[in-house]
């Protein structure tokens, strides 16, 4: 696995602490989990994104004050036949983003099921965010913003409407999660899922760079 570092702008201080976390993306198939991940990590969007089988991960780092927060972002398959594998990936995760498609009502119901499962089986301290993706297709909306917001409020979740296509709120969502994570000692991402191979990418989009370690 190859790792490439990102140079810091001249005159910006080095972060004095590095915290590493595991974040898992959950949700029905084709709601845009992979697209959100790709938009955040590489600043890219592909109109036709191949579905994940099993799981895959990318890594991205953001800087908050004197702390570099490195997230290992696991994208899980949404097909029902892979559901039994999900606990392998969210076990030990410090954060989870549950994604639904605001143009398909049934995906919000499925997202609620994922939230309940995380609350029952994941770490009690896990940070959970709900993302209503496809916000650029407001004219096709069927899942009401208010319904998703109430769901998030009832379960004390972070909530944002996002669009991987236009990048709306994508960086803000992941930054909000990073801010809620405890900035203690670096976390161990070991275990079966942590040892799986993936693509290790440290390039930040230009927007992320402008937000990194600002003073």
UniProtKB/TrEMBL annotation:
<keyword id="KW-0378">Hydrolase</keyword>
<dbReference type="Pfam" id="PF00071">
    <property type="entry name" value="Ras"/>
</dbReference>
<feature type="region of interest" description="Disordered">
    <location>
        <begin position="185"/>
        <end position="215"/>
    </location>
</feature>
<dbReference type="InterPro" id="IPR005225">
    <property type="entry name" value="Small_GTP-bd"/>
</dbReference>
<feature type="compositionally biased region" description="Polar residues">
    <location>
        <begin position="204"/>
        <end position="215"/>
    </location>
</feature>
<protein>
    <submittedName>
        <fullName>Ras-related protein Rab-5B-like isoform X1</fullName>
    </submittedName>
</protein>
<dbReference type="InterPro" id="IPR027417">
    <property type="entry name" value="P-loop_NTPase"/>
</dbReference>
<dbReference type="InterPro" id="IPR001806">
    <property type="entry name" value="Small_GTPase"/>
</dbReference>
<comment type="similarity">
    <text>Belongs to the small GTPase superfamily. Rab family.</text>
</comment>
<keyword id="KW-0547">Nucleotide-binding</keyword>
<keyword id="KW-0342">GTP-binding</keyword>
<keyword id="KW-0449">Lipoprotein</keyword>
<keyword id="KW-0636">Prenylation</keyword>
